[in-house]
Amino acid sequence: MPRSLKKGPFVDDHLMVKVVKQNRDGTKKTIKTWSRRSMIIPEMIGHTFDVHNGRKFISVFVTETMVGHKLGEFSPTRTFKGHPIKKDSPAAAA
Q: What is the pLDDT of residues 42-75, one digit of tens each?
């Protein structure tokens, strides 16, 4: 269920402080975060985040089209290895 519009987007305070500081200084260093729940806001455009997926950090470069989504959406937690291949049994071939 989406967040109420009157509340506005949720961004963890510690993450917002880092983004605002980099925007003020004019730097674009990578920001390492575990905050998958934080929503991407327009101030984050152009920044690179290392988002933790439970095992390792995935680099996410924020573009305009990502605004309104959450950081965790761009850092998958599961690895899809494909569907199993069914082997032909001798009875089915006959």
A: 999 999 999 999 999 999 999 999 999 999 999 9
Model confidence at 6, pLDDT cuts 50, 70, 90, reads confident
Which residues is 58 bridged to in the sheet? 51
Where does residue 6 rank: exposed (0-12), middle (13-18), buried (19+ CB within 10 A)?
Answer: exposed
As a residue count, the chain comes to 94
CB-based contacts of 22, cutoff 8 Å, min separation 6: 28, 29, 31, 47
The pTM (predicted TM-score) of the whole model is 0.81
Q: Cβ atoms within 10 A of the Cβ of 15, count?
A: 17
Q: Are 12 and 52 in contact (CB under 8 A)?
A: no
Contact between 48 and 69 (Cβ < 8 Å): no
Please say if the pLDDT value at position 22 is more than 60. Answer: yes
- Beta-sheet strands, E only, within the chain: 31-33, 48-52, 57-61
